[in-house]
UniProtKB/TrEMBL annotation:
It holds the Pfam family p450. It comes from the Eukaryota. Its main location: endoplasmic reticulum. SUPFAM superfamilies: Cytochrome P450. Belongs to the cytochrome P450 family. It comes from Aedes albopictus. This is Cytochrome P450.
């Protein structure tokens, strides 16, 4: 009987799948032919490529089209290849695409309710409240902390090269950014640079671990939100949630009991929790005493969700930028020499002191970081969801509400039409600003990365602190001509086996 049921139902299922895979054709949109059960993502699910490379390959196959229909398994999505249309979606027509389409359920999955995933009015209000954390005034107050952590990193490099010239720079860069974000977001002082088994660091690593379970967890959140609800999947593993929530609880209790006040994100969230809002005067933000509300406006879980996402996003993206930048400078000794010259010259003018002002004048270093973000975008795709029916300008094509929208950032950033010789590292591209309308390194529009300025600042501090003291070269001569190999199971752009470089100490007056 059961076999007969399957025999009779199989043709019906096949027809339904065929109809689903014709969705974009019925909408009058060109589409890539999908295959069951992975849609257009067989190379990712078969572990041939990570998500960044998979989307980049889709872009290069279809870049002659301004947009193309694809399938996230059975779910239709629209790939946007045209930079002008991307700009419209992210900025001018933002009201139609203000959400990311990531499932949020703060009751059953508290850690899902963070700024990155929230949509609508709740996202807008929380974004406005968190903005003071990343003002120029706040960044200047954080700056000494960044320099302190970077100096610890520099001393660690000295210890490493005492035993071997070859150093794994990706891991050390990740430890540095972990320590910075832990202090800024959680208000705790940690030294994972010298203690790589620190429990906080290891818990943070697990959130974006490159294993099958984590990949499935992320795939459900981004691609299959309804299935995520049915399966009861959580945003992060329960053990990580419990650890981070308890850490936040203890931090809040300590600050409230002892009257501790720090200029960091945790303090701002604590103020918001206690019903205190901020008012702006130029670049300065001060408490609005009239706004005090005795009712707690943020729960412990809500505070934890915000600091959690900033930790995860901040340490991984910035550490990748630092290590990729050092790798490219090791490959291009002439560019590295120009960076050394700029650093030495600027620091000499400031009596060897790395200050907020002296760092800001290192324009070529910043161009190197921008070129690194172009070639190795920390977030290799931009995702949105159509929140209101939208007709693509100058066409008869209508995008239905609820449709996932994807911008293949890495593919666009490596398109020779917009960036000649795209695989070459050319910081001069960014002399005078962004070189192309196709550059979206940190997104665009109202959902531009809120932590962009902090990310650039902490990356720049690390690169300058290391390059004022060291010279980098390739440990593997084959890397001179070959591109780095990326992990095939990863949702983010990360290398297979880290980044090993030869590190030698420089001897200059400013060092």
């Amino acid at each position: 009987m059961l076999l007969a049921f399957f025999a009779l139902s199989a043709p019906l299922v096949a027809v339904l799948i065929w109809l689903q895979f014709r969705y974009w054709t019925r909408c009058g949109v060109p589409q890539l032919d999908p295959s069951f059960p992975f849609g257009n993502f067989s190379e990712f699910f078969c572990q041939k490529n990570g998500i960044p490379s998979t989307y980049a390959n889709l872009y290069h196959r279809t870049k002659h089209l301004p947009y193309v229909g694809i399938y996230l398994s059975l779910r239709p999505a629209l790939l946007i290849n045209d930079p002008e249309l991307v700009k419209n979606i992210l900025t001018r027509d933002f009201e139609h695409f203000h959400d990311r389409g990531i499932h949020v359920d703060e009751e059953t999955d508290p850690m899902s309710g963070h700024l990155f995933a929230l949509g609508g009015v709740k996202w807008k209000n929380l974004r406005a409240k968190l903005t003071p954390t990343f003002s120029s005034g706040s960044l200047k107050e954080m700056f000494p902390l960044l320099v302190e952590k970077a100096n610890i990193l520099q001393r660690r490099f000295l210890q490493e090269i005492a035993s071997s010239e070859v150093v794994e720079v990706k891991e050390l860069a990740a430890c540095y950014t972990s320590d910075v974000i832990a202090s800024v977001a959680y208000g705790i002082d940690m030294d994972s640079i010298n203690n790589r088994d620190d429990l906080f660091r290891r818990m943070g690593e697990k959130v974006l671990a490159h294993d099958l379970i984590t990949s499935l967890r992320l795939a459900l959140a981004f691609w299959f939100p309804k299935l995520k609800v049915m399966l009861g999947s959580k945003s992060i593993a329960p053990v990580i949630q419990e650890f981070m929530t308890e850490l936040v609880r203890k931090t809040i209790e300590h600050r409230e009991k002892e009257g501790v006040h720090r200029k960091d994100m945790m303090q701002l969230l604590l103020q918001l929790r206690n019903g205190v809002s901020l008012k702006r005067n130029g670049e300065q933000w001060t408490e609005d005493s009239a706004s005090k509300n005795p009712i707690k406006s943020l729960s412990i879980d809500e505070v934890t969700a915000q600091v959690m996402v900033f930790f995860v996003a901040g340490y991984e993206t910035s550490s990748s930028t630092v290590s990729f930048c050092l790798f490219e400078l090791a490959r291009h000794q002439d560019i590295q020499a120009k960076v050394h010259q700029e650093i030495d010259s600027v620091l000499a003018q400031h009596e060897g002191a790395l200050t907020y002002c002296s760092l800001a004048s290192m324009k070529y270093v910043e161009q190197c970081l921008e070129e690194t973000v172009r070639k190795y975008p920390p977030v290799a795709i931009l995702n949105r969801e159509c929140t209101k029916t939208y007709r693509i300008p100058e066409t008869d094509v209508t995008i239905e509400k609820g449709t996932p929208i994807v911008v293949p950032l890495m593919g666009m950033h490596r398109d020779p039409e917009y960036f000649p010789q795209p695989n070459d590292f050319q910081p001069e591209r960014f002399e005078g600003g962004a070189p192309s309308k196709a550059y979206f390194g940190f997104g665009a529009g109202p959902r531009l990365c809120i932590g962009m300025r902090l990310g650039i600042l902490q990356s720049k501090v690390a690169v300058v602190t290391l390059l004022r003291k060291f010279r980098f070269s390739l440990a593997n001569p084959e890397d001179q001509c070959n591109e780095l190999r990326m992990k095939p199971r990863s949702f983010i752009l990360t290398t297979e086996g880290g980044i090993q470089l030869v590190v030698q100490q420089r001897h200059v007056e400013t060092a």
